[in-house]
Amino acid sequence: MNGIILGILIPFLGTVAGSAFVFFMRREMNAVVQKAMLGFASGVMVAASVWSLLIPALEFGGEANSAPQLLPAAVGFLAGMAFLLLIDYATPHLHLGTTKPEGPRSHLSRTAMLMLAVTIHNLPEGMAVGVVLAGAADGGMGISTAAALAMSVGIAIQNVPEGAIVSMPMRAAGNSRWRSFLIGSLSGAVEPLGALAVIMLTAWLTPAMPYLLAFAAGAMLYVVIEELIPEASTGEHSNLGTVGFAIGFTLMMTLDVVLG
User: What predicted TM-score, i.e. pTM, was given to this entire model?
Assistant: First the structure.
């Protein structure tokens, strides 16, 4: 139980640490640093989706290289993508680093729309942590406790730059440092809530674990493809986003393989 609680809280602490950058940096984040951070976060999320979610989903039950083995992963992955696509269309929000609202028209403030965007972003990460922790607790998924904690640590590492990317624009918009820190920190609150909800759900739906693992992978990769990679690869210094991606991917892959 203590391991589950720790695994749920670790990613949130990463967001809090990143949000604290607002106390040590200028009002605006350097564009070069932001590109590298977005690339790094993308790499971590892609590696986590493959090694911590899709591979365990494929290895759960069914004869190797057969349709029964592939079907849960394929269905869950596409459902995760579709779920985030629906939320993206139905919710007014701002993409990171942009000023043009997405989704339906709304009279919400820029701060509120940015918070909604970050909630959309963090929800699949919380779901991913929750389903991996539930898989480790179940014992039949081939996911070790160390691998589940590695997933939490990896998400926490990518949440550090993510917290800064939220809090720094809040400061640049004229908010105080403490208000910007609070908004940035609260942007990660949906992660432990999402993880807890998934853990409670999987307690009743153990046979659906491969679907849930792949669902979380699809949702996370939607965020990477729709938001992080485009922002990291546009404009100048896009090569730094690529370098950040390589570092993040390698780090998360190493954590999962070594601790798994």
Answer: 0.81
